[in-house]
Amino acid sequence: MNTPGDSISREALERNLQHIRERIALAAAKSGRAPDAVALIAVTKYAGINEIRTLMELGVTQIGESRIQDAEQKFRELYTAHLNDPRAPDPSAVNWHLIGHLQTNKADKAARIFHVMHSIDSVRVAETLNAEVNRLSTGPRPAQMRDLLLEVNVARDAKKHGLAPTIEEVTALLKLCSEFERLTVVGLMAMAPHSDEPETVARPVFKRLRELLEEANARKAYRQPLSELSMGMTQDFSIAIEEGATMVRVGSALFGQ
Fold first, then answer.
1. Residue of 54, 246, 45 lying closest to 147 (CA atoms)
2. I need a labelling partner for 206 at 20 to 30 A (CA). Which of 1, 24, 226, 247 fits?
């Protein structure tokens, strides 16, 4: 994997992107879905400005960052470049996804930067984020809407964040979030443990997350049906798609030489 400051040629990045899209299409076909039913979230944690700019030029419309401060800096640099040269890609024209843990003391920055947040895992985080979005939405400008996914710690990994993988915990937070006018929960997110055998380790995790979403919808736990499953990374996204993923978060496969 590249580290910040490293660069990958446009040709290599384009080749990697095409290969990932082909793998997404193949896995989607195995699950009886069209390739465009699965969104590719390009994880740019270890990418520089040039790489992100190239991704946007190649048609990537979903950018994932795990650190709020990094995303803020990258967005600022990209936007400044766009203002100086309108031919440069506009970072506000793509959707920015927060895929890392959200702390309450950074909810104000997250609300300004990200369109979709994948890591809502507590009442306190949800309420704080709602207050910040409401604050940003006052005045003559249109209300700022944000999409959320609830993070579920399906593997019960003590080192990871997320709700316990029970319908009771998921339902309780969904009911609370139903009261938020400018925040919409669209689905659930989970991370499978890294393994050299994702078929046996990751698939049960993805299957359980899908079952939780289906059960929450059957119980009408939220004000509208949940439709999104954010699961699967470089090592296991094909399996995640077979189990129903609608968003996959891919980073290292994009930036390998």
1. 246
2. 1
